[in-house]
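mind reviewing both lines:
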Amino acid sequence: MTGEAFQLINLKWKPAGFVTYGDNNRGRILGVGDIGSGNKVIIRDVLLVESLKHSLLNISQLCDCGYKITFEPEQCIIIDSESTETVLVGKRVSNVYMLNVSSIIPSMNCLLSRDNESWLWHRRLAHIHMHHLNRIASKDLVIGLPKLKFERNKLCEVCQKGKQTKNSFKPINVVSTTRPLELLHMDLFGPSKTKSLGGNYYGLVIVDDYSWFTWTLFIATKDNAYLAFKKFAKVIQKEKVCRISTIKSDHGGEFQNERFDKFCEKHGIKHNFSAPRTPQ
């Protein structure tokens, strides 16, 4: 069993009870994995135990896996019985034989773990700049922040996207329409804080794309936008002796509904909608 997750490969996170120590204290089992490098597994079914400060190894488990263990006064040697290859060498410290498991773990993994840890704290602290992270770590301003050297050795994809700006829409000085009422822009504003003398709270603004002439129709509620436009269309087409070809609005419910669709279909009016958040 071990308390360090980075030593394990094929780690499966699954709570599986507790381990009881000799002093009757217990440690929570967080998962199980293997010790080794790449596809080569040296020790299988190693428990990951929460807050375990020392890794413990069962000799009988190694024997069951086909290893031969030789104990000497100064060291112990673990040999693969099939290949006669020395797998691990442990040194004796007082009455305990200590194994250096890091010798079978690629050093690249350790470096990758430290690198990922620095960028992990970068993400945890709202994508703070690495320079500020070094200042925070040097002054111990965050509990649990490790003493790492935070370097900006790669680009953070989220930070790059957050700093991107969209291109501005350049003004077009050329009129794209050829006659009045060929294209009408519509929008609704309100409700206003003060009711008008006629009892209205909203205003329907209609702009002619050709002449930029503007009409403002005051209405009491949003659902009256259809009736106001229907009356306006009947009057303005007779007044200008030409038909409305296209209207353009946003996706508001007062414009995008069944009554508007049927009216436009009946009178041959094309209804276009502006793009959300970028009406330009």
